[in-house]
Amino acid sequence: MKKVRFAPAPTGYLHVGGARTALFNWLYAKNTGGKLVLRIEDTDAVRSTEESTKAIFDSLEWLGIDWDEGPFFQSGRKEIYRKYAQELLSKGLAYESDEVKGAHKAVIFKLPDNRKIVVRDLIHADVEFDTSVLKDIVLMKSDGTAAYNFACVIDDHLMGITHIIRGDDHISNTPKQILLYEALGFPLPEFAHVPLILGPDGSRLSKRHGATSVGQYKKEGYFSKAFVNFLALLGWAPGDNREKMSIEEIIKSFSLERIGKKGAIFDVKKLQWLNGVYIREMSLEALTSAVLPYLEESGITNKDTDEDHFKFIISLVQERLKTFSEITELAGFFFAKDIEYDESAVKKYLLKEGVAGILGKIINEIEREDAFSAAALEKSFIGVKEEMNISNSKLIHPVRVAVTGSAASPPIFETMIGIGRENCLKRLKNTLSFLNAGKFPFKIQGPGANA
RNA sequence: GACCCCAUCGUCUAGUGGCCUAGGACACAGGGUUUUCAUCCCUGCAACACGGGUUCGACUCCCGUUGGGGUCGCCA
Fold this sequence. Notes:
There is one protein chain. The protein is mainly alpha-helical. Among the domains are: 207-279, Orthogonal Bundle (Glutamyl-tRNA Synthetase, domain 2); 282-335, Helicase, Ruva Protein, domain 3 (Orthogonal Bundle), CATH 1.10.8; 343-437, Arc Repressor Mutant, subunit A (Orthogonal Bundle), CATH 1.10.10.350. 47% of the residues lie in helices and 10% in strands. α16 (392-404) packs across α18. Residues 447-451 have low confidence and may be disordered. The structure holds one RNA strand.
């Protein structure tokens, strides 16, 4: 039985690189019918925090990654590490440091001279190191806790890990760990070092490239299934051109052999596209509940809005959404008390000859008609069009800007129905008075916003 | 700097010596549908880093160069 592990240090939120490592481990376990162990590497008492641990659990849960054993905390296993350190000490393979840095004496592993260590890696070929380029390995720190390479080796052995799947950045630790496996008399596990996730400039993905924590992507309104799908395709490919894959399909096709050796740049554009694909396939119910928190948070939901009406509005923007959070931008005007206008839309469609007259006419037509349906609206629009002898677009565009504040919206009749008769009338009249006053409440353009 | 890893379109990748005038997806550009936007459809753009070998034949194998990345903590 294969057994893998995910072993994050709780010194910050779950990084997307860590998330992918966790995912690959999880996928490997699922694919082979093996087990996944979760181990929290909190030997650094100063930097490890409970919040981080919690954030990691939250993110793993959001991603849908569960584990079969653990979580084990290294902070609770000090005695175990101490025992093995003592063993190496008494065998003469390790020595105590003379440097006094803390309450204890650090225990350090003495490296053999000029030995070649070959790391057999499932992703890379064999990688050879010479011990002459390595330094002695700290086993126990002078604060009495175990150092990474030591705790890692002992735990991986004691927990029965058969395959160590971890980031590429650990490859240079591996020869040291192999030496420790040997010294301790532990059998060697298999290693698979997956390439790192890179930022747009090709260097390791970090904060300066933008969002790096899984929590951030959740917050920005990405659907966990889309995110996982995207992550799986970063450095791994099924080999048959599939892009959108269900988690079951991914599990079924997953293999270590198909993981690439090259670092992969995190392409947010592709994530957005994939997220849009998932959103378009969501049920209205699911999408509505996914999107609701964003509307509530920005305070634009209208409590009077009934469920069906709400869903109707969601259905209008569903295919336009790339992330859940965009709902406020795309559907905010349906709920807003007073709309703000996009400056360039006003210039383009409202500040034109005859627009005031056209808006006045459509107000009349709508007021004269009791019904407020697509059919009724169409009748009103045709009425104005014929009476004023104007083209459809001469009418539709100004009305759209008048009722939404924007030049882009879902189809005009549905949009108006979503806004409601009274609100439409009110906005039309407001627009008319702004037009007369020559002054509009313009939307503040955020950075990157385009008219 | 030392050691290690990596190298196909801008990006993610397919490709394991002939199937390659190198395939798909994202992005981008143009067009159609929608008198808006989005969706959808069509078209286009665009790559084997370079130089040597090996071979009847190299994107695929070997060597070198260049470029990029990672690691060099009593952090993990």
